[in-house]
Design brief:
39% helix, 8-stranded mixed β-sheet, 5-stranded mixed β-sheet, alpha+beta, elongated, 2 domains, Rossmann fold, BirA Bifunctional Protein, domain 2
C-alpha cells in the first residue's frame, strides 16, 4: 500500500517551513508592538460554537465543516475559522472582567479545516494568522486593525495591495436593508441559483456573496446598504473613511461585499492582491471586520469585537509569484572538523560547548575524510570551521578558520570551553586589521 497525505493537505518540509517561521515571527513582532498577546484554542470545538455564530445558511455550515459525533456522542467540529473559538474562550474564561484592560487584544495562529475542492491557495487543512480585539466600539479601533493588517502584509514584502471596505450597519440598518433587498429579490426568485433560492427567505444578504454568474448580474442592480444606514451607523462608517484618509491608506468601497459569515456588522474589509498567482485577478489575502453581538451569542455580556484573519498559504503563493525573497538566514556559524577516530569524543564536546555559548554548530557523523567534511561545511554555508586532529588533540589546540577569507588561527581548547566569544572576537579583529 502506498501511503499518501489526505487530499487537500500538504507537508511543510524543511526549507519551506523556514518561510512559515519568518511570516509567523514577523506577525508576532508586529502584534507585540500593537499590544496583542497570543491565545491558543482547541483545534476542535462543539458544533454549536460555529453553527450558531457562522450562520445556518453560510457555506461553511451547510457545505464545508468537518463535523462528527465522538465516542461520547458529542457533536464535534474541526474549527473552520478562528474567531468563534476565540470568542468562546473569551466568554468561558471571563476575559471581560473588570480587572481586564480594555480593549482586550489577542492573536492566534494555526490550522483550520474546511471540506471544499482543493485548489491553489485553498486547502482542506489551511492555516490562519488572526487578531481579535474586544471591548471597544470605536471606529478608531476599526482603522487600527486594518492598518495593522496592511502593515503586516507590507512587512512580508507585498506592495501591490488593495483595501476594500464596506459597512453592514447596526441591527436597525440591517432590518431596513433586509426589507428592501427582499422587495427587490422576490420578483426575481425564479432567476436565482438553487443555493440563492434557498437563502432568499432565510438570509438574503448571503445572496450578495454568491459566486454564481447569473446571481451576480442580479446583485449588481440590488439596492445598496449605504442607503439604509441609521445616522449612528453612517457616522461610524464616515469616521472610518476619514481616519483611513488621515493615515494615507487608500481604500475602495464595495457595497455588495458582505463576507462569508453572519456575525459581521458595521465595518468589514478585505485586503486583496492582483498577483499572477491568481491569474492577475484581485484575490483576497486577508479579511475581517466588526462583530458586535457575537460575544452575547455565545453566552457572554454585551461586548463589541473586531478582528481579521490572514491565509498563510495564500500569502506564500503571492510572495512566490511576485518573486519576493524572504530574508531567511540559515547559515551555520561553525562546523567542527574531526580528523581521526580519536577526535570523536572531543568534537562532540566542542559542538555542545559552542551551542551552549549561543552559536549554531555541526560536525560529521558519517566518518567522512577531511575533504568531505570541508565540503559539508561549504554546503551548509559555515562561517567558520574548527579543525582538530590527533596531534592537535594531544597539544590541546584546534585550528579556527574563516571560510570566507581563509584566515586561520590556532586556539587553545580551554579558551573555546571557557570563553569562545573572546576567541571569536579575536579572529574578527585580526581580519579587520
Amino acid at each position: 500500500m502506498k501511503y499518501q497525505r489526505p487530499k487537500g493537505t500538504t507537508d511543510i518540509i524543511p526549507g519551506e517551513s523556514a518561510k512559515w517561521q519568518y511570516i509567523e515571527q514577523t506577525a508576532r513582532q508586529l502584534f507585540q508592538k500593537y499590544r496583542y498577546s497570543e491565545i491558543r484554542t482547541p483545534i476542535f470545538e462543539n458544533f454549536e460554537v460555529f453553527s450558531r455564530t457562522s450562520g445556518e445558511t453560510s457555506d461553511i455550515v451547510t457545505k464545508e465543516m468537518y463535523d462528527f459525533f465522538d465516542k461520547g456522542d458529542r457533536h464535534i467540529t474541526l474549527r473552520p475559522e478562528g474567531t468563534a473559538g476565540v470568542v468562546r474562550a473569551y466568554v468561558e474564561n471571563k476575559l471581560y472582567g473588570p480587572e481586564i484592560q480594555r480593549p482586550f487584544k489577542t492573536f492566534y495562529m494555526g490550522p483550520m479545516f474546511r471540506y471544499e475542492r482543493p485548489q491553489s491557495g485553498r486547502q482542506r487543512q489551511f492555516h490562519q494568522i488572526g487578531v481579535e480585539a474586544f471591548g471597544v466600539d470605536n471606529p478608531t479601533l476599526d482603522v487600527e486593525v486594518m492598518a495593522m493588517a496592511v502593515n503586516l502584509l507590507r512587512q512580508c514584502g507585498l506592495q501591490d495591495l488593495k483595501l476594500v471596505i464596506n459597512t453592514l450597519g447596526d441591527a436597525e440598518s440591517r432590518a431596513a436593508y433586509h426589507a428592501a433587498l427582499m422587495q427587490y429579490l422576490e420578483p426575481l426568485e425564479n432567476e436565482l441559483s438553487d443555493d440563492s433560492k434557498e437563502r432568499l427567505h432565510k438570509n438574503p444578504l448571503r445572496i450578495l456573496d454568491s459566486k454564481d454568474k447569473e446571481d451576480q448580474k442580479i446583485v449588481d442592480a440590488a439596492p445598496s446598504i449605504l442607503d439604509y444606514l441609521t445616522p449612528e451607523a453612517a457616522e461610524h462608517f464616515s469616521t472610518v473613511k476619514k481616519l483611513l484618509q488621515a493615515l494615507d491608506i487608500p481604500f475602495e468601497i464595495e457595497t455588495n461585499m458582505v463576507r462569508g459569515l453572519d456575525y459581521y456588522n458595521h465595518t468589514i474589509f478585505e485586503i486583496m492582491s492582483n498577483s499572477k498567482a491568481f491569474g492577475g485577478h484581485w484575490t483576497t489575502v486577508c479579511a475581517g471586520g466588526r462583530y458586535n453581538g457575537l460575544v452575547e451569542q455565545l453566552g457572554g455580556p454585551e461586548v463589541p469585537g473586531i478582528g481579521f484573519g490572514l491565509g498563510v498559504e495564500r500569502l506564500l503563493l503571492v510572495l512566490e509569484a511576485e518573486e519576493i525573497e524572504l530574508p531567511i538566514a540559515d547559515d551555520l556559524d561553525i562546523y567542527v572538523v574531526g580528523i581521526g577516530e580519536a577526535t570523536n569524543e572531543e568534537t562532540l564536546k566542542l559542538v555542545q560547548a559552542l551551542r551552549h555559548a549561543g552559536y549554531s554548530a555541526e560536525r560529521d557523523y558519517l566518518g567522512r575524510k577531511p575533504k568531505g567534511q570541508f565540503k559539508a561545511a561549504n554546503r551548509m554555508s559555515a562561517h567558520l570551521t574548527l579543525t582538530i586532529g590527533e596531534e592537535e588533540l594531544r597539544d590541546g589546540k584546534a585550528n579556527l578558520k574563516n571560510m570566507q577569507t581563509g584566515n586561520e588561527v590556532s586556539v587553545a581548547l580551554r579558551d573555546i570551553y571557557t570563553g569562545f566569544d573572546k576567541v571569536y572576537q579575536n579572529i574578527v579583529e585580526s581580519e579587520e586589521e
